[in-house]
């Protein structure tokens, strides 16, 4: 199930790195694939997908409102990815994404980072670990 959103996620990462913009079609495609896969695959269950959509999306939205460091594209992409893989898998993806993002921000001395790049890195790392250890998401 994971490989279905490689292309839109890679494109979102590329555009975020180059122009700091995440095209709407990328997160919409990931959300649509998540919607279709919810009917085709039993895992993750629909409540976990909804939690993966709402929890990170609301948290990032609150951070964006309060501190202004998170863009709307990052919020939408994270929420769509959360719906696609579910809350548990999204937690794994964020685990692999946030440490490199923090290191990049410290090395580049920036408060704002292209989050889609690090979500993509986290996604590929999580997919690799899932493949090696035979985990499902």
Automatic annotation (TrEMBL):
Residue ranges constituting the Prepilin type IV endopeptidase peptidase domain according to the UniProt record: 5-105
Keywords: Membrane, Transmembrane, Transmembrane helix
Residues annotated as transmembrane: 25-41, 50-69, 81-103, 115-135
Any one GO molecular function term: aspartic-type endopeptidase activity
Domain of life: Bacteria
GO cellular component labels: membrane
Keyword Metal-binding: no
Name of the protein in question: Peptidase
Organism: Desulforamulus profundi
